[in-house]
Amino acid sequence: MRNRVRYTTYGENEKEIVRKGIAAIREVLLEGSRDEKRSLLLALDWFMDPYYKQDIYIADIHGELVELLQTVVITSNDDEVSEDALELLSSYEWPPFEILENNMDKVSEQCKPYVLYVINMGKEE
After folding, report:
1. Is residue 102 within 8 Å of residue 61, measured between CB atoms?
2. From CA 21, how far away is CA 123, in angstroms rounded?
3. Distance, CA of 98 to chain centre
């Protein structure tokens, strides 16, 4: 069997989920399929990146979204989904990330180094 390269994309469906608000986002990120989660996380990158000026759509749910992304990291049984959520946190947010800090025992071994990096961003050595 040949290795298949899988690409994650998003479209209007994922944008609409984000525009519906935190409940719709939470439903997909906590209960959706792996592909649905990864597509929505990619769409969230577009919304969270100030360059695209779409962050107005998530301004009123910002705190809840940051908490949800941390929850995804500690509850996902898929390291790629966890890494996608961590990428959003490390690219657009700043510690403290209390949910991550208080739940390191729930983080997969593969993701622990990245989680430690994210929760310690900006701290002096």
Report:
1. no
2. 33
3. 15
